[in-house]
UniProtKB/TrEMBL annotation:
Signal peptide: none annotated. InterPro entries: Phage_holin_3_6. Pfam families: Phage_holin_3_6. Residues 11-21 have a biased composition (Basic and acidic residues). The keyword Transmembrane applies. This is Superfamily III holin-X. Keywords: Membrane, Transmembrane, Transmembrane helix. The chain crosses the membrane at residues 60-83, 89-108.
Amino acid sequence: MTGAGYAPHMNGDKETTERPTGDLVRQLSEQTSTLIRDEIRLARLEMLDSLGNAKSGAGLYGGAGTAALYGVGAVVAGLVLALALAVPAWAAALIVGAVLLAAAGALARMGRGRFRRAAPPLPREAAAGVRQDIDTVKGGLHK
């Protein structure tokens, strides 16, 4: 016997080591814990990488929205200046502003209508599946 309870045996020209079951279970537990910790660490790194990409994407979308807002402002200013060729500048600004406010009001009314028609967000299929499972279990208990 060598070491702490290990008995080497000769199988042909190969030496094998029989180890106590407790040692094997302990080693399995340690290796499983290590594997789980490593998988969690890998998942965390993947999530951080994905989050970094999402943050930069959100920043780019924000930049695009800001540029679009300034672009819309320039187009509105152009409309005011073009209309100012036919009417006084103050009247042109009022006309363009009134048209934009009317459009915003119409969009707000349509949005409010859509919200009112929207059903509450209920997981109908999941609820039906749970009801069916409960009915199945009840039916099995009654038999």
